[in-house]
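hiii so my PI (J.) wants the whole complex modelled not just the main chain, which honestly fair. so below is everything: two entries, each one labled with what it is. i double checked the lines twice but i was tired so who knows lol
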Amino acid sequence: MNLASIAVKNTRRNLFRTVLTVVGVAVAMLAFLLLRTVLSSWTAGVEYSAKDRVATRHKVTFVMWLPKRYVDDVRAMDGVKAASWFNWFGGHIVGKEDQFFANIATDPKSFFDVYDEVALPADQKQHWLEDRRGAIVGSALARQFGWKVGDKVTLEGTIYPGLWEFNIDGVYTATRKSIDQSSFFFNWEYMNEGAPAPAKEQIGWIITKVPNPAQAAGLTKRIDQLFDVRDIQTLSMSERALNTSFLGMISTLLKAMEIVSVVILLIMMLILGNTIAMGVRERTHEYGVLRAIGFMPKHVSSFVLGEATCIGLFGGVAGVALAVPLINQGVGRFMEENFSGFFPYFRVATSDALIALGLSVVLALVAATIPAYQASKLHVVDALRRVG
Amino acid sequence: MNDVSATPSSEAAKSSGRAPSTLIRLSKVGKSYYRGKEAIEVLKDLDLDMAEGAFEALMGPSGSGKSTLLNLIAGLDNATSGSIQISGAELSRMSEGERAKWRSQNVGFIFQTYNLMPVLTAAENVELPLLLTPLASSERKKRALTALRVVGLEDRSGHRPDQLSGGQQQRVAIARAIVTDPKIIVADEPTGDLDRNSADQILELLVKLNKELNKTIVMVTHDPAAAERASIVRRLDKGQLT
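here's the output for the full assembly
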C-alpha cells in the first residue's frame, strides 16, 4: 500500500458517482475526438496534396478566369512535364440542390498526365476521351447517387446557366489520397461550346506537373514572372497552398468547431471539479483525522490530486476506447463513402487520441487544484469538528 | 516500531519502584477563540502535570474545555498563552509541520466515531500511519498485524470497516493508534458510540495498553463508568480544573 494506491481505492468510495463522472469524461472525450477528427479530416486534403504539382490561378481570386492560351505558354516552359486546365462548373442535380459535389470541366487528354494517381479501366478511359458529353465520377460519388457506367446525368448550371446532359463514361478510383473520389470531371470542350460569350475560352486554373518536387517552388515564380507583363497576371502556388486557400473559405466554420471542442473540454473540467469538490467536502473530517495522525498538507492535496488523476485517466481511456472503433469503423466509413470530397480519410489520428488522453489527465488535475488546495489548508481541529 | 507487545522501559521503572517521571507539563496555559471580534476564553491559566504511564480521564460539562485541552496535549492546536512541554519538547515553539511530525511519532489518536477509511481493510487502516515512516512495505504489514493481534483482531485483518461491528472498528482504531508505538494515546469519547458490552471491552483494552505497554492515556469522556477505569480523573469547568 502507498499513497497512490489509496488514491486509486478512493475512487471506489462513491462508485456510482465515480462511474457517472467517468462516463461524463468519456462522452466529452468522444465528442472532442469526433470534432478533432472532422477538423483533421477536413484538412487532410491539404496534407495529402501532391508535391510535384503547381496550381496557377488569377492573381486577384480563383473565381476570376484566365485565358485558355496561357496553358500553351506554361507547357512551353522549361521544367514542365505536363499541364492541364480546369473550370469550376458549380452545377447540381435538379431537385437535389442540397447535395453538393464538386463538378469540374477539364481536358481529358491532359488530365491523366497531371493526375496519374487516377485509376480508370482502359476501356472507360478510351470512351471518355472520345465522348464530348462524357464524364467520369469518383467511386464514392457513384455510390452516393447510385450511378453506373452508361447512365445519363443532367446537371443544372449556376455559373454556366442551363441544363447540361452528361454520359457517365467511367468510375474512377485513386491510387493515392491526393485526389478525392467524390468529384465529377467532364469534357471542357462541351462546356466551352455552350458557355456564354464572356466565358468562352476562359479557364479557372492550370495544374502543372513537374518532374521533380524540388523544382515546384522555382516554377511558381517563373510562371508568374512570365504573365506579369500580360493583361491578366497570375498567382502560382503549390497544390497544397491551393487546397489551403480553398479551406480558407470555411475557416470560420473550422474555427467555430475548434471553439466548440474547447468548450466541451471546459464542461468536462467543470464536471470533474464538481465531483472532486463534493468528495473533498464529504471527507473533510477524514482529512482532519489524517492530519491528526501526522499526514502533512502536501499528503492531503496528493490524495485529492491523485484521485482526480485516476478519474480523469479512467474517463480518458474509456473515451478513446469508445471513440476509436465508433469513429474508425462506423462514422468514419460512412463519411469516407458518402462525403469523401470533404472527408477523404476520416479516422482518429493517433496524435489526437494521445492529446485526448493527456488532456483528460491534465484537465482533471486543473479541476482538482482548488479543492486540493482547500483540503490542504484545513485546520486540523476545525476539520475534526466537521461531520459529514 | 518496537514490538508493541514488548514491555517498555517505564514498566521496568514501575517494577523497580522508581517514581514515574512527568511526561506532560502544562504551565499557565490559556486558549481563546474569536467569534468575530469577541474573544472567548476556553482555558484559563491552566497548570497540569501528567506522569508517564498514567491513565487520566478528563470529565466536565459540554463547553468546559476538555476537548480543547486534549487537542493542546495532542499537539493538534496551539495554546494562546503558556507553555506545553511533553517529554521535554516545547509544543508551542513548534511549527505546524514540526508538530505534525511530532504527532506521528509520539501520539496515537482514538476518536469517538472510529474514523477508519472505508475503502481500506483493517490491516491497511492500521498500516496508514506507518506510511509516514521509512519502513519497507513488508515491515509495515508485519507491524500492522502485530498491532491487530494486540487488540485481538488479527483474524479480521482483511475485513473492511463496513464488515466489522462498532466495537471491532474501535479496536482497529486502537491498533492504528499504537502501531507507531507512541508514548501518548489521546482518546476523545472512545466509547461514546458503543453499547455497554463493547464499551467495556474497549476500556479493558485501554487499561491493558496502559498497564502492559505503559502507554500514557489521556481520555475525554462523559461516561462515569469509563472514567472509573482511569487511574486519575480530572474535572474541568469553565476552562479550569476543579
